[in-house]
Each structure stands twice: as C-alpha cells, then as structure tokens.
Design a protein that fits this description.
With 326 residues, the chain is α/β, with parallel strands linked by helices. The protein is 41% helix and 18% strand. It has helices at residues 3-29, 40-55, 70-77, 94-98, 126-131, 145-148, 171-177, 190-203, 217-220, 267-270, 276-284, 289-302, 306-316, 318-321; strands at residues 31-36, 60-65, 83-87, 109-125, 157-160, 182-185, 208-213, 223-225, 259-265. Strands 3, 4, 5, 6, 7, 8 and 9 form a seven-stranded mixed β-sheet that branches. It has a two-stranded parallel sheet with strand order 1-2.
C-alpha cells in the first residue's frame, strides 16, 4: 500500500470531522442567552424576537427564567445574559444605572424599541361604577373603602397590587402619600393577581386592581381606570439618593408615564461585528400593541402556549416581521 493511497484515506476520514468541528464552531458563535420576561405580554414580545433570530438569522437562543428587577440587570452586565426584552421605563431602574443614553455607565445597551406602548393605572369593575354614581376616580376611593375591605385588610380597603417586587411599582408608598386608606396586596405573580380579580368579578364584588395595557383582562372584564394623578418624575427617587421623595405631585405619588418599551443587551455581544445584522434587526423591531393584544386574548381564550401562538403569528404575518430584517 503506497503512501499516496494512505494519505488520501487519511484526508477522506478527517474531512467530515474537520467540517463538523468548523460547523460546531460557527454554531457556537451564534449562541445567545435571553431572559424570559415574567409577564405574558413581555414573554410574547421576546418570543417573537427569539423565533426570528433562530429561524431567520441562524442563532440558537437559550431562554432563561429570571425575576424582573435590578438583579436581572446586574446578571446581564455580569455576562450571564445577552438580551432582555420589553423594558417599561416606569418600572425599570436599571436603564438609568447601566444604559449611557439614560444617564447610566454604559455597561448595558439599548437595542431599540420593542414597539409596545404601555399604559398602567388602578382599575375597578364597571359594575361598581354603575352602582355608585358618586364615584368619579381615585380621590373617592376612601368614601367606598368598606366595599373593598377584606378580612385581611380589616377596616381598610384592599388593592390587588403590582404582583412582583422587582417591577418597582411602590403601591403602598403611593397609597400612603395620596392618603388612600388601602392595603396593597402583593400576590407574587400576574396569574395569581388576575385569578383573584376574576374570582371577585364572577361574584360581582368590588375590587381595586393594578393593571396595564395591553392585557387580555380588558377583553374578559369591563374595567374602569381610577385616573391616578398625572405622572411627574422625581429626580431624587433613586437608589443612589436613598429614594428621597419629592412630595405630592411627583412620582411615586402619581400614576405611571406612558411607557415606550425597549429591549436591552450586553455590549460585548451586540457590538461584535458578527452580530451586526442581529443588532439591526433588534433596532428595527416594531411589534405593536394590537399584535400583542390579539395573541394575549388567544392564549387566554384557548389555553395555547406562548410559543404556539407566536409561531402561528410569525407564519401568518411575514409581511410585518420581514420589514424588520436588515
């Protein structure tokens, strides 16, 4: 057996191995770690981005469940994650700490708007308003607090409040500053809060509920906003300033601002030239309220999974998402 033949056999055997290793290397360069938001609307928005990154741009996305809040920002800045989706500026405090354009240190990157515009308030069922024509808004809550009282709240009314501490809602502080004699009840999850409200709704009982739009609950229940005071920011309501409030008329003694939500990322990942097209896609993304509301209602009405309905939306709306690609 001559050397040429042996060399040819050796190359023949090694070629698929070398090809396989090169493909593994290329595949590894396309890996991305993304945080799964802890509310259904945000999960939908993130899943849209994930599906397009995977199916159209060759990425393998590892989705990680992690509670909202400063801990998630610190984990991303520390290299644990590459992307987080649909931040609501009224709720997140990490933007002013980590994103340069919001006054932060630049260790996180604004990847651009998600397209969702959020609105938040406290809500009561319409049947309560109909039965109490003297109720006009938040300033009248104390006059009707006995109708909102529970065994746990005693002689105070009860607010089914912001469910997750990391959302930075400051419900009890707001209630106290506005002299609303209610207790904020934090139930730990969106699902728990909505189950509590829906149970009361079915029984025809009054309830005060923290909620945001877009949300499927507005299709399931007739709700009326109490119209919290117009938002005005407080420059000293920050961790660095010890959360010194600015008094009445300023956050958190107000309602929420209109939230133009955005996605964020780790600069080392997104500024890598290999990820330039993905970064352009994220900047172009424009998933609108009407799209999210439709999917939220579908999930609530049918019990289908987020992944299932988002895949269906992508299959049927190529004219929308293809415009986001670079």
């Amino acid at each position: 057996m001559n050397r040429s033949f042996l060399k040819a056999c050796f190359i023949f055997i090694l070629s698929p191995i070398i090809l396989s290793l090169s493909l593994v290397g290329a595949h590894a360069a396309k890996r991305l770690n993304a945080v799964v938001p802890d509310w259904t609307g945000g999960e939908i928005t993130c899943e849209i981005a994930v599906l397009i990154l995977e199916q159209e741009m060759g990425y393998k996305v590892n989705q990680v469940e992690f509670p909202s809040g400063n801990g998630a920002w610190e984990a991303m800045v520390g290299g644990d994650f590459d992307m987080m989706c649909e931040h609501w500026p009224s709720y997140t405090e990490g933007d002013t700490t980590f994103i340069a354009e919001f006054g932060g240190d630049g260790t996180a990157l604004n990847l651009g708007t998600s397209g969702i515009v959020g609105l938040s308030d406290y809500y009561v069922p319409k049947y309560f308003v109909d039965a109490n024509p003297g109720f006009k808004g938040w300033e009248d809550l104390n006059d009707y607090k006995d109708q909102f009282a529970t065994i746990e709240s005693g002689d105070k009314g009860r607010l089914i409040g912001c469910p997750v501490p990391g959302w930075n809602c400051y419900d009890q502080i707001r209630l106290d500053m506005l002299n609303i004699d209610f207790i904020a009840d934090e139930l730990g999850s969106e699902a728990a809060s909505l189950a509590e409200a829906q149970g009361a709704y079915k029984r025809g009982e009054p309830f005060l509920l923290y909620l945001w739009e877009p949300h499927w609950a507005f299709g399931a229940m007739e709700l009326v906003a109490v119209g919290l005071p117009e938002n005005k920011s407080c420059d000293t309501w920050t961790e660095a300033d010890g959360y010194k409030d600015c008094g009445l008329g300023f956050w958190p003694a107000t309602g929420w601002a209109e939230d133009h939500t955005f996605n964020s990322g780790r600069p080392d990942f997104w500024n890598d030239p290999e990820n330039a097209d993905a970064k352009k896609f994220m900047a172009n993304m424009n998933f609108e309220n009407i799209h999210q509301s439709t999917l939220l209602a579908l999930i609530n009405d049918t019990g289908r999974s987020v992944k299932d309905v988002v895949q269906e939306w992508k299959d049927n709306n190529e004219d929308i998402w293809r415009a986001w690609l670079p």
